[in-house]
Amino acid sequence: MPKILVTGGLGYIGSHTVVELINAGYEPVIVDDLSNSNPKILDQITKITGVRPVFHQLDLCDEAGVNNLATAEGDIEGIIHFAASKAVGESVQKPLKYYRNNFYSLINLLNAYYGKPISFVFSSSCTVYGQPDHLPVDEAAPVKPAESPYGNTKQIAEEILRDMIASGANYKVISLRYFNPVGAHETALIGELPIGVPQNLIPFVTQTAIGKREKITVFGDDYNTPDGSCIRDYIHVVDLAKAHVAALKLMGKDFKGYDVFNLGTGKGNSVLEIIKAFENTTGVKLNYTIGPRREGDIEQVWGNVNKSKEKLHWQTELGIETMMASAWAWEKYLSQNPL
Ligand code: NAD
Ligand code: WQD
Fold first, then answer.
1. What is the pLDDT of residues 150-201, one digit of tens each?
2. Cβ–Cβ contacts within 10 Å for residue 215, how many?
3. Residue 113 known to be catalytic
4. 91: Cβ below 6 Å to ligand 1?
5. Ligand 1 contact via 136 beta carbon (within 6 Å)
6. Which of 187, 210, 241, 249 is the most buried (most CB within 10 A)?
7. Rounded Cα distance, 49 and 26, in Å
8. Does an H or E element contain 280, and which?
9. CA of 219 to the centre of ligand 2 (A)
10. DSSP H/E element including 174
11. Residue 169 CB coordination number (10 Å)
């Protein structure tokens, strides 16, 4: 079976991708420093798939450690690089933590496997677009000045990868620009595990629904959108995970160099529509108020996903109801089975 190194593989998107890699006949090898994940997720992956992947607990900022990893795991076909710090607000408060973690880990990895014909999949973000001039936003849209150090690390990482390929490196590279991943695996055994107060909308919604939070604050309803609240392209995390398998398959064929793909549904939903969708899907009434806008929020963004359909041979299959129902099932599982 082709062996794939999955950095950050015990995290939210990484764990769901490990499951889909196993389902697709790959052998994932997980590398994670557990800085934002729980080792029990490995047990959960095993329960879902019947396979217990090899797990290396390692901080990818440790250059010697990464070089030892490349010796121990030298016979890999590809790398999916999820490992990073990802909290936008924290990145504004602690920029050096973000530049160090997100660049040291990337560069150590690229150096350690340099010269091997590796397929490299990078976790990028629609955040690189900022507020696009045209919607839906496609991959040719200009990258806008980053709104946060976190967003800057994604933009610069894409440049590092492009420059490396332009220098003649033997890698094949695909950057995947995720829109807003939400939801959980259908078994409700893995899902998003926010530490502390959730920054993202859906975990805040499910924690409010279960009674852990008193109410949701909608950050502004005075935007230039149909109902005044911000619009995003929410994508089910399992659809997102399957796109990584599609990217590996594409690089296994007649693929050279570097390419970028949007991973979204191609549709936008407002915050108030999400709240309504959650209530209608689960039957749980949500307590929410309208508050002031959140600093740094962009008004509206959703992806043009034609290139992913045509070249990646991938598109989303799961709708907003499944996103809401799976997120709620996971929250209920967590309330009975704290990890
Ligand atoms: P996550 O925090 O759940 O997963 C990241 C994992 O990487 C965690 O398990 C963490 O312990 C690990 N990690 C972090 N630094 C590490 C290091 N130095 N060495 C080893 N392991 C390390 O985040 P996620 O939501 O699964 O996101 C995965 C990737 O996708 C990140 O690169 C993130 O920037 C990107 N992304 C996420 C979103 C989103 O909304 N979740 C959107 C766009 C892009
Ligand atoms: C979604 C919408 C909020 C919470 C962020 C990062 C992005 C990526 C995905 C890493 C916004 C509104 C939220 C709440 C609210 N992460 N909201 N009340 O900001 O689109 O993207 O996560 O790559 O880089 O920027 O996601 O879930 O935080 O917010 O009204 O309590 O929900 O204003 O409009 P966002 P989000």
1. 999 999 999 999 999 999 999 999 999 999 999 999 999 999 998 889 999 9
2. 12
3. no
4. no
5. no
6. 241
7. 12
8. helix 271-282
9. 10
10. strand 172-178
11. 18
| Cβ of 86 below 6 Å from ligand 2 | yes
Distance 201 CA to ligand 2 centre (A): 6
* C-alpha to C-alpha distance for 19 and 3, rounded to whole angstroms: 14
| Beta carbon of 11 within 6 Å of any ligand 1 atom | yes
Protein residue closest via CA to atom 4 of ligand 2 = 201
Helices (H), 283-318: 306-311
Token pair, residue 311, equals 């070249």
- Inter-residue contact 26 to 1 (CB < 8 Å): yes
Burial classification of residue 322, based on how many CB atoms lie within 10 Å of its CB (0-12 exposed, 13-18 middle, 19 or more buried): middle
Distance (Å, whole) CA 302 – CA 309: 15
Q: What confidence tens digit (pLDDT) does each residue in 300-319 have? A: 999 999 999 999 999 999 99
What secondary structure letter does DSSP report for 126? G
pTM, full prediction: 0.98
Q: Does the Cβ of 171 fall within 6 Å of ligand 1?
A: no
CA–centroid distance, residue 102 to ligand 1 (Å): 10
Distance CA 295, CA 135 (A): 22
Ligand 1 pocket check for 57: Cβ under 6 Å:
no
Helix, coil or strand: residue 69 = helix
Work out the average pLDDT over 324-332.
Answer: 98
What is the three-class DSSP state of 261? strand
**Ligand 2 pocket check: which of 208, 288, 294 to mutate, most ligand atoms within 8 Å of Cβ?**
294
Give the residue whose CA is nearest to atom 9 of ligand 1: 11
Exposure letters 102-111 (e unless 16+ CB within 10 A, then b): bbbbbbbbbe
- Give residue 134's pLDDT band: very low, low, confident or very high (50, 70, 90): very high
Helix, strand and coil in the chain, % to nearest 5: 40, 20, 40
Q: Which of 12, 26, 129, 150 is catalytic?
A: 150
> 224-256 pLDDT, tens per residue?
999 999 999 999 999 999 999 999 999 999 899
